[in-house]
């Protein structure tokens, strides 16, 4: 029998996003009990815009002390976004431990850095993505650090992904982990399970610590921290993993197989463990990621939340979108065509060319309805890009409108579309790591079915076909077969981000 919640204790989950940092108390079976949150502070240069890890560290350690007074904390695990890495010294007790400040990945790059980096970045499989904007990729951040601050760089001991940085701060043990390095870091070739050529070419191998599984127990929190912040003596520290990979793991731990998960928010992020590698096309926003077991995950990224805001406006009306308004837009063939922001998404060359066709929406609710319809179309396009998998699971903020799941299901009538209304998938997945070795059955998960979609499917099918044909026709360059995964040429620069 699985251990009870009390026997397994409560898991402290640190979730480091680009905008906010959250500290959660989560049950061993993935239910969030309490959340503390602060904005992720960024400081100006020199030498570059960077995250204030000192301030975050004080907040994290103090927050753990607060949670420990209210919950029986047994383990700590961190998640983080794929563009976050930290170059550190050899002492986690020395200030924030860094050898150089952690680069804000939205910091613009000096042109000389970008020009020098591109020829070294390797094949698509070495990168796992197109070469994206600003300082997105960890390898490019390391290149910039080494070029700008060679002396400080030479004194560094380790380069750690964000989750592993926090595990090191708490435990003193440095590790590498495949799902974080496999999240468009440009450091790790997921398909062939080796470091990208740039690691050897630039002499970075000495900075890469030994690999460990995301769920590996690194030992107790350092005694000095435990005393200072009144943490439990046997508070264990786990390695941690990439945030979106942990959300995928949540469904794996619940016993799902052969599924595509689509998470929605600022980004629409799709993952499938069944997508063939030769299907991946970097020009269509597709990526090669890693699950927490080191296996390839086909991925797709498009900036759905940002696109929604462009179409709906910054202050859309409250309340759900009425289905009759969407049907009226469909009947009038009003379309929002990609892409309104600086991200091409699945339509190469479309960035900045988004527009709405006639007859244009007249009211604020009509604009919101068109935005929801547009994002459902983008979601279906993400699913079709990934290909394999009869089952589709939706989660994230778009589900706040009940019509979103129905529209997606109507656009994918040959698939089983279900949705998860829980808003804390990353935290749940991270907490479930603590039971990876001992779990004897599926972790609990509640998925809702989408009902009564036949009438909506009949209404939307012709509209969707016209939308897709128009969107692809207007995108440049013209779509080709998905063979980019085999290319050895450096990626075309694209405006995208993890």
From TrEMBL:
Bias kind Basic and acidic residues: ranges: 483-492
Listed A to Z, the keywords are: Kinase, Transferase
Q: What is this protein called?
A: Carbohydrate kinase
Taking every annotated instance into account, which residue ranges of this chain make up the domain Carbohydrate kinase FGGY N-terminal?
A: 134-245
Q: Carbohydrate kinase FGGY C-terminal domain: which residues?
A: 258-436
One GO molecular function term of this record is: kinase activity
UniProt-annotated stretches for the region Disordered: 473-498
Entry's family note: Belongs to the FGGY kinase family.
A Pfam family of the record is FGGY_N
Keyword Nucleus recorded = no
For whether the record's keyword set contains Kinase, the answer is: yes
Q: Which GO terms describe its biological process?
A: carbohydrate metabolic process
